[in-house]
Amino acid sequence: MVPITSCLSQLKWDHFQYRPNTLDHIQLYDEASRGPWGSLRLLFTARVKVLSAWALALVSLFALGIEPSAQQMLIPLQRQAPLLNVTAQIGRAGNYTYKALWTSSHQSGSGPRNINPERLKLQMTIANGALGSVAKVNIDCPEPAEECRWEPFKTLAVCAKFRLILNGIRKNNGTIEAFTIEWSWCVKTYNHVVASPAGLQRDHYTSQPLQPYNWSSTVPQQYFDYHAYHVEGSNELFNISSTLTSMLFSYVGQLFTAEINLPVVMSSTKDNPGFSFGEFLYSADLADFAKNIEDTLTNQIRSSAPGDNSDAVTWPGQAFYREPYWHVYWPWIALPICEVVVTACLLAITIFITRHQPLLKSSALALLFHGLCGCENNGPSQDTQGDTKALGKLAKQIHVEFTKDEHGILKFVKVKDEQEEGHY
Description:
Blueprint: H1 2-17, E1 21-22, H2 25-32, H3 36-43, H4 51-62, H5 66-73, E2 74-92, E3 95-96, H6 118-130, E4 139-140, E5 147-150, E6 153-171, E7 174-196, E8 199-209, E9 211-212, E10 226-230, E11 238-241, H7 244-255, H8 277-283, H9 286-301, E12 313-328, H10 330-353, H11 364-369, E13 372-373, H12 388-395, E14 399-404, E15 410-414, H13 417-420
Parallel strand pairs: 3-11, 13-15
Antiparallel strand pairs: 1-14, 2-4, 2-12, 5-7, 5-12, 6-7, 7-8, 9-10, 10-11, 14-15
Helix pairs in contact: 1-2, 1-4, 1-10, 2-3, 3-4, 4-10, 5-10, 6-9
Pfam family, one: DUF3176
Transmembrane segments: 329-353
Keywords: Membrane, Transmembrane, Transmembrane helix
């Protein structure tokens, strides 16, 4: 807008320099240089027949739409961007060295062991998992990350198989049902794992059963501290503490071995003060129970602290945050570009037109020094001084030209009546 107002102010002087015009045109140019309303008045004044002034007035009005269009041109949005200085981590296990079920025997879980407070922690974790409160795997998705993702990875895990083996057999006016749950070692391949600082959001996996890997055909496997396993089609080895291969699942079976007699009778002397797993299992959805235990044991294997695997490691992932950016709608860019181009052209035209006159523009001092000449004897009467409406009417009747007076000083010189004809 600054070039437009400057050009209109400078053209004001040129408007009177080469031809006489009514004095009120000074006011029209001055108002047009101040904003759109004055520009609109200039356009609707047929007496000002200067194409350059009209063009500048049009650009001034056109500029009113630039600010609203700028809101359509640049839209603030957000997108996910990687955090380059942050690495997300998630639990993974290639080896399993247990902490809760430690024993000095390499062949079974029946050997002597030290006092181990981790044992109760594992029991409570499994019990909570059976109730549906599955312990989470260790995840580190630190802020300011909003989301963390991981590439596919494999980890040692536990798989469960739930089967109904006896159903609907009636005996002694009752119905007999029998179920079996089998836990086994497996490898789970996780895909599309997504988490946030609050926890895991999505993890899809497939599972494959583990197959024993024989290190030597001459040395029995029970003499190794770890049993090695692999999955079909892969050379990656997964190692499990030798005593744990059979001990863990029998231990879980012992935890949930219970007997319940119906009807249940309360007895302060005979009731077992331990966990009431019998009553829980009798009414529980055993398929969900098996899945909860599977997830609980898998997460314990994949985690170190809290967790039951001192050899658990982490798998690196990528952290993402919400990055603000500006979306540019390029068609709207044409509006300010057109305004800039047209304004630049009009500025060049104005400079060329007014190249021989002093650079006065909107100077108030210039109007004082180059004042009105030739109206001393028939100027405004005393009763109209200060009345802008009356002065405006009078200015429309006076034709002036910006030229040198008899002293060689540039003035707004009043022209004679016969010269005023036809200069509208």
